[in-house]
Specification:
Radius of gyration of chain B: 25 Å
Number of helices of chain B: 18
CATH architecture of chain A: Orthogonal Bundle
Distance between the termini of chain A: 21 Å
Number of strands of chain B: 25
Largest sheet of chain A: 2 strands, antiparallel
Structural class of chain B: alpha/beta
Helix content of chain B: 25-40%
Largest interface: A-B, 27 and 37 residues
Number of strands of chain A: 2
CATH topology of chain A: ABC transporter involved in vitamin B12 uptake, BtuC
CATH topology of the largest domain in chain B: Rossmann fold
CATH superfamily of the largest domain in chain B: P-loop containing nucleotide triphosphate hydrolases
Oligomer: heterodimer
CATH architecture of the largest domain in chain B: 3-Layer(aba) Sandwich
Number of domains of chain A: 1
Structural class of chain A: mainly alpha
Shape of chain B: globular
Helix content of chain A: over 70%
Strand content of chain A: under 5%
Distance between the termini of chain B: 41 Å
Chain lengths: 352, 528
């Protein structure tokens, strides 16, 4: 009835206002919280710092975002199965340590060192995928809750990584590794971005165009229904965790190349940041729901926030406060959105 | 405000017929619409102190909607509710409790790790400051249990109790808040005959206490044993309210199921072929099922019926690998798929799907469908490995979409809604989507567990139509249903299951609503 009246008398400013409110609500229900966050952040930072919207800064942001994009995609895979991967941080540390140790041992000190780079990368990726495999087996076969499994593994793996290095940074990798994968630029694009873009494409294909991708969504959406549909849920879970570890490993290699050292204390902030990126990107904590492009945007958004805060010279301790709050707020906003969706449905009788 | 029963309430139900006493609660012209479809047509309903008012009707007749309105779980779309001649709006379950309306529903609401007394007082404030008053609690619990003549120690853990005892603790919990009206929704569903007797004794105590009891049951024998009045519901109508002693069983069944069925159910021709599935001497580990044997032939619809908790569904689930089997042999087509002695066990969802069996569970929300995913994804999920939908790793999304367009025509839904998330669709559409899983693959045997539960009447007719199509195409259907009317009218052959035992096999020519409920009631009297 109220809506009818609005249509009949659009002259008063109140009705325009309520229409505007309705429209905003509609957009919010449709698009979620991320677009609003992005618009607000870009507006706020570009007003407070002239430097923010310059090309150098923006390309810096995209360069820095690659690492988190990769890890967030990995986190998304696990979260889609209704799990949570808290071990992405130590995976980065382990990959960094293993690959740098291998490269250091393989490289004679002369020549380009391509062989040692290749073998080092493969070794690092294998170590990382191995951790993911263990996670997957624990969750799928032994039914350890994902949260506990990956929490336990973070301690196990960190302990191993520290015992390998004694806590000391590892040097002695071929300079090519850092020069190309850390700082290399090809036709104006930094190499990390060139590595990340195909990874995004690969993940997109995997999630949307393969059977296993579809099964991963199904398992998170309703495990029982997936089992009754004859899906090998255990196998799919193991694949999800291992593939997640693989993508984390790629991020770890890029980070190692950027730093030019192998360190066992890398990646500490990544579990939180990657979960935040997924949550802001609308991946459901209950599993089964989430879109890849939103997760990528979510990761970029977090880096953008960090960059903006750096430009505004905000103390890094306060930055931690801000990131944590963002994570919590995004979950609240998502719950609120679900509620709005219900009311909208009840009011109009139709779904969006 | 609280519902007050008249102070000197006579426990004798005969007195009720003298209608000078006022009802505890009176519903006038109450109705309920959900999104344009009517769940409950305008109806009158009242409850007097010290009576048992039974509600009888098939699934989906509107009983649960009526209960929801009385317990404040949902608000009526029209009509008014009178308590002490005053119009009230029952805004929530909590509000209903304050008014003196307590309900015991089918699902268990006790915390198994707590003791009886702790459960009794869970949620009610019996503490001074932050501490529970344990001694007082104990005393009160004892009093409540004694009042109900319920022989149980208050410090026993609930998880060590039998189903009946747990049910009675729930009633005691509801009773503890001194309600004027108690609603019991199929309380005997999972109880044995002896336990049922215990429960009935307790209900007699409630009556003597002057509490008005609303009793919902599928079992006519219970209604005649317990109730003073009975209201019959059908398709959202409250057809009539009778004094129980004035009608007999046949009349009651006729009222509830009527002659409507003749036109409502399609006549499905059976073209019985060779034997498809045979189960012999099946015993299950975590179920009552003992020594069950049955056969299903190609092209027929076999009903497997029993009241809730009878174990009928367990038998079917075992065939799909969802229940652990203790002993027995299962043969599908010409292969043994389960034989413990020979070490054969191929009962896994994937393997059975590949053999052409499709089990669709009763609870579509928790087991059948993925509510956050769209129609297309749900329908193709079990068949994604078929060449039709994928080649190698890759999903053939174009083909999938194409197939779904034809599916939507068969389901009579808008092709555009194929991409809609199930959460936003009606229960009827959801149920049809689940059935449509059988459209996109070759299925020889459909095992349908309560396929019409919680579905509106129009969709029911459509679902029966689909069953007919399946059958005409040469597939067979194992229809598990506690809805006797449905089984009697749809199935070609019926097995009756009660408390884990296969009681009888009824051939086509002697199936009727009356025979089926006759069998179950005979059993009932034999046990009690």
């Amino acid at each position: 009835m109220i809506e009818n009246r609005v249509k009949q008398a659009p002259s008063s400013w109140q009705s325009y206002f309520s229409q505007a409110v309705n429209f905003v609500t509609f957009l919010y229900i449709k698009g979620g919280v991320l677009p609003w966050f992005l618009v607000l952040a870009v507006l706020g930072f570009s007003l407070s710092s002239e430097y923010f919207l310059t090309q150098t800064n923006l390309s810096g942001i995209s360069m820095h975002a690659t690492y988190l994009v990769l890890v967030a995609m990995a986190q998304m895979l696990v979260m889609l199965t209704a799990g949570l991967d808290l071990s992405v941080g130590v995976m980065i540390a382990m990959t960094s340590v293993v690959s740098s140790l291998t490269m250091g041992a393989m490289w004679s000190g002369y020549g380009s060192g391509w062989e040692s780079i290749l073998i080092g990368c493969v070794a690092g990726l294998c170590a990382c995928a191995g951790i993911g495999l263990v996670n997957g087996i624990g969750v799928a076969w032994f039914r350890v809750p994902a949260f506990i499994m990956t929490l336990g593994m973070s301690s196990v793996v960190l302990g191993l990584a520290l015992s390998l290095t004694g806590g000391i940074p590892i040097y002695g990798m071929p300079p090519n590794f850092t020069d190309i994968f850390g700082y290399g630029v090809w036709k104006g694009f930094p190499v990390p971005i060139l590595v990340t873009i195909p990874c995004i494409g690969l993940m997109y294909l995997f999630l949307n165009w393969t059977r296993v991708g579809r099964y991963i969504y199904a398992i998170g959406g309703n495990l029982r229904a997936a089992q009754l549909s004859g899906i090998n849920t255990k196998m799919c879970l193991i694949i999800a965790y291992t593939a997640a570890a693989f993508f984390t490993g790629i991020a770890a290699l890029l980070i190692t190349a950027r730093l030019d050292t192998g360190e066992s204390n890398l990646g500490v902030s990544y579990p939180l940041l990657s979960i935040a990126a997924c949550a802001i990107g609308g991946v459901s904590l209950q599993g089964g729901v989430g879109k890849l492009h939103n997760v990528v945007l979510g990761a970029v958004f977090i880096i953008l926030i960090q960059n903006g805060m750096n430009l505004m010279r905000i103390n890094s301790y306060y930055q931690m406060v801000a990131i944590g709050s963002l994570l919590i707020i995004s979950i609240m906003a998502e719950n609120f959105r679900q509620q709005l969706m219900l009311t909208y449905k009840n009011k109009t009788g139709s779904s969006i | 405000m609280k519902i007050t029963s008249p102070p000197q309430q006579s426990p004798h139900s005969d007195q009720l017929r003298v209608r000078n006493a006022k009802p505890l609660i009176h519903l006038q012209g109450v109705s309920k619409d959900y999104f344009g479809s009517t769940a409950l047509k305008p109806m009158n309903f009242d409850i007097y102190a010290g009576e048992v008012h039974a509600l009888f009707g098939e699934n989906g007749a509107g009983k649960s909607t009526l209960l929801k309105i009385i317990t404040g779980d949902t608000q009526p779309s029209s009509g008014k509710i009178l308590i002490n001649d005053e119009r009230v709006k029952i805004t929530s379950v909590h509000h209903a409790k304050e008014l003196g309306i307590s309900a015991v529903f089918q699902e268990y609401t006790l915390v198994p790790q707590l003791t009886v007394e702790e459960n009794l007082f869970l949620g009610s404030d019996l503490s001074s400051g932050i501490f529970l008053q344990k001694t007082k609690l104990r005393k009160w619990a004892k009093q409540t249990l004694e009042r109900l003549e319920f022989d149980l120690e208050p410090n026993q853990l609930v998880m060590n109790l039998s189903h009946a005892q747990q049910r009675m603790v729930e009633i005691a919990k509801a009773f503890h808040s001194r309600p004027a009206i108690m609603i019991l929704d199929e309380p005997t569903a999972a109880l044995s005959g002896r336990e049922t007797k215990q429960l009935f004794a307790m209900i007699d105590v409630l009556k003597a206490e002057g509490i008005g009891v609303v009793y919902v049951s599928h079992r006519t024998s219970e209604i005649f044993r317990l109730s003073d009045r009975v209201s019959v519901m059908q398709d959202g109508h409250l057809i009539c309210t009778h004094t129980t002693s004035e009608i007999d069983e046949n009349k009651l069944i006729e009222l509830a199921f009527g002659h409507r069925f003749e036109s409502f159910f399609p006549t499905i021709k059976s073209n019985t072929g060779k034997q498809l599935l045979s189960i012999s001497n099946l015993c299950l580990t975590n179920s009552l099922v003992q020594d069950a044997s049955l056969t299903i032939n190609a092209g027929e619809i076999v009903g497997l019926t029993g009241l809730a908790g009878s174990g009928a569904a367990d038998i079917a689930r075992a065939c799909f690998g969802l229940n652990q089997i203790k002993s027995g042999v299962i043969t599908y087509l010409d292969d043994q798929v389960y034989n413990k002695e020979l070490g054969i066990n191929e009962l896994k969802p994937r393997a059975m799907l590949d053999r052409g069996m499709l089990y669709l569970p009763a609870d579509r929300r928790t087991e059948g469908l993925i509510m956050e995913h769209n129609i297309r994804q749900n329908i193709s999920l079990p068949s994604l490995s078929l060449a039709k939908f994928s080649s190698g790793f890759w999903v053939r999304r174009k083909r999938e979409k194409h197939v779904m367009e034809s599916v939507s025509r068969r389901l009579k839904i808008n092709p555009l809604s194929i991409e809609n998330v199930l959460n936003h669709l009606s229960g009827g559409t959801q149920q049809k989507v689940m059935l449509a899983k059988g459209f996109v693959r070759d299925v020889q045997l459909f095992i349908l567990d309560e396929p019409t539960i919680g579905v509106d009447i129009g969709t029911r007719a459509e679902i029966y139509q689909l069953l007919q199509e399946f059958c005409d195409a040469g597939a067979s259907v194992l229809l598990i249903s506690s809805d006797l009317g449905e089984v009697a009218n749809i199935a070609h052959r019926v097995y009756i299951v009660d408390r884990g035992e296969l009681l009888a096999e009824i051939p086509h020519n002697s199936i009727s609503e009356a025979t089926l409920s006759h069998y179950l009631d005979q059993r009932e009297t034999a046990l009690s």
